[in-house]
Amino acid sequence: MKTGIIIPCYNEESRLDVNAFNDFIQSHENYHLCFVNDGSKDNTLGVLNKIQRETPSQVSVVDVKKNAGKAAAVRSGARYLYNRKDVDYIGFIDADLSTDFNDFKKLVDTLHENQELTLVYGSRGKGEGQIERNVLRKLFSQIVKLFIYMILGLPIEDTQCGAKVFKRDIIPLAYDKKFLTRWLFDVEIFLRMKKHFGGKEIMNKMYEQPLERWIHMDDSKLEMKDAIQIPLMLLNIWYAYNVTTQFSTATPQFQLALNEDFEVFTGDLNWNGRMAA
């Protein structure tokens, strides 16, 4: 059993804890780190390549040439890892490690131990762990949470937590089509799974697990102009998934094709390519 972890990165040169990533991957041979450089303007790519050279067989760097947002970056990483036959579970965490590796490993353990589950995701609103966040950010999150609940109609405490892990076979369903927004892709993943499994069965396929530690870091990549548009973005998501036929429940064909420029640096292969839209 090997788990691939996607770490989306945009201008993270000064925030990446290189030692933490190196220490983890060098002591966990059953994990593979997939950093996705989302068109960074600083030296993020150089830092990522340095991490990759330390443990080349367990670290890959997907360099997407043009910034497209966290949703597209995570999707690029998922599509790359899915094409690695040695990866059984695929998940993602934030580059600032606001969710640490200990909590992520517990998500993986839960998924591995329960054959019925296809997705386990962290929750910052449950449990009594070390949860630190800005007061205004917390208030804004509560407002967004209300909008999301109205759209999903599912008893999910925290859709936007940046720590989730999937079984390999659900990746095509979750990531086949492009996401509608740069940031709210988690909501779209839940909607795709709900459409596929049904409103009742879906809650048996996924589990929300409390985090023991989560700390909001400063310098969020979500800009104010994006934040104030969130209600409109959510309305657009609701319309696309419930009124149009844009997102059907047909079985997706999840293969690399030709469209999006990227470059991969890994111990197994070094090559330029183009990834499917």
Write the layout of secondary structure elements.
Elements: E1 3-9, H1 18-26, E2 31-38, H2 44-54, E3 59-64, H3 70-82, E4 89-92, H4 101-113, E5 119-123, E6 130-132, H5 135-152, E7 164-167, H6 171-175, H7 185-197, H8 202-205, E8 206-210, E9 213-215, H9 224-227, H10 230-242, E10 260-266, E11 270-275
Parallel strand pairs: 1-2, 1-4, 2-3, 5-8, 6-9
Antiparallel strand pairs: 3-10, 4-7, 5-7, 10-11
Description:
The model is unreliable at 269-277 (pLDDT under 50). Helices cover 37% and strands 21% of the residues. It has helices at residues 18-26, 44-54, 70-82, 101-113, 135-152, 171-175, 185-197, 202-205, 224-227, 230-242, and strands at residues 3-9, 31-38, 59-64, 89-92, 119-123, 130-132, 164-167, 206-210, 213-215, 260-266, 270-275. α5 packs parallel to α10 (230-242). It has a single domain, classed as Spore Coat Polysaccharide Biosynthesis Protein SpsA, Chain A (Alpha-Beta Complex), CATH 3.90.550. The two termini are 29 Å apart. The strands form 2 sheets. Strands 8-5-7-4-1-2-3-10-11 form a 9-stranded mixed β-sheet, sandwiched between helices. Strands 6-9 form a two-stranded parallel sheet. With 277 residues, it is α/β, with parallel strands linked by helices. It contains 10 helices and 11 strands.
